[in-house]
Amino acid sequence: MRKLFLLLTLPLLVLCCDSQAQDPSGQPVAGCDGQLYPDLATSLYVLPFAVGASFETGLTNCSSSFHAAGQPDQYASDFNMPVGTPFVAARAGTVFLVVENASSSGGDVGNYVVIDHGDGTYGLYYHAPQNGISVSVGDQVSQGDVLGQTGQSGYAGYPHLHFTVVKGSPQYPYDAIPVSFRNASPAHVSLKGNTRYKALAY
Fold first, then answer.
1. Cα dihedral sign, 49-55-61-65
2. Which domain holds residue 125?
3. What is the tens place of the pLDDT at every residue in 92-110?
4. I need a labelling partner for 191 at 20 to 30 A (CA). Which of 1, 3, 8, 30 fits?
């Protein structure tokens, strides 16, 4: 009877407590906040930097400040990238909005680009330097295309790329959704903070 109980409860324990590991069944896995994240193998997103590169995260899902639970950016990931580092499209789409006339340091929300994925979701890439976006509104971009350079504009205390995916209007306060990155190594369903991730080939 005890063996049967353990067998029945083990999947629930994996779902609730081992949120950073990939579910071998390929089903969505609960992240650190209890929300379901896409299966890594079928995720539509890749890390927003070049294949072969590796960067450490800052604030990620379930962190503090703007990334705290209940905040519009609770599902955002910050990648600590030096000023001038190219960032790429995590998913293909159409350039919906470009803002690049703010100061390279400070300047409200700063400089950013928004990509329309064509299914009601948008990818938002923040903190580029002034004139640091290399695409224009209406451009079609493929996954992995360079969108611009990272910087420290807007509410950024240090150079990094702030990436989030939202559903519906991309205007703040938006409705962010959880995403996973299929080429991240280590393969965590939801990225951990202060952890170095390498972008594998896809």
1. negative
2. 3-199
3. 999 999 999 999 987 688 9
4. 8
Whether the per-residue pLDDT at 1 is higher than 80: the answer is: no
According to the model, what pLDDT value does residue 19 have? 40
Which CATH number fits the domain that encloses residue 23?
2.70.70.10
d(CA 38, CA 21): 12
What's the number of domains the chain is made of? Answer: 1
117 contacts 179 by C-beta, under 8 angstroms = no
Residues 6+ apart with CB under 8 A from 157: none
For residue 54, pLDDT beyond 90: yes
Q: What was the pLDDT predicted at 93? A: 98
Q: 60, 147 in Cβ contact below 8 A? A: no
Which residues, 6 or more positions from 144, have their beta carbon under 8 angstroms from its beta carbon? 46, 50, 51, 88, 89, 202
> What is this structure's pTM?
0.85
Is 141 in contact with 101 (CB distance < 8 Å)?
Answer: no
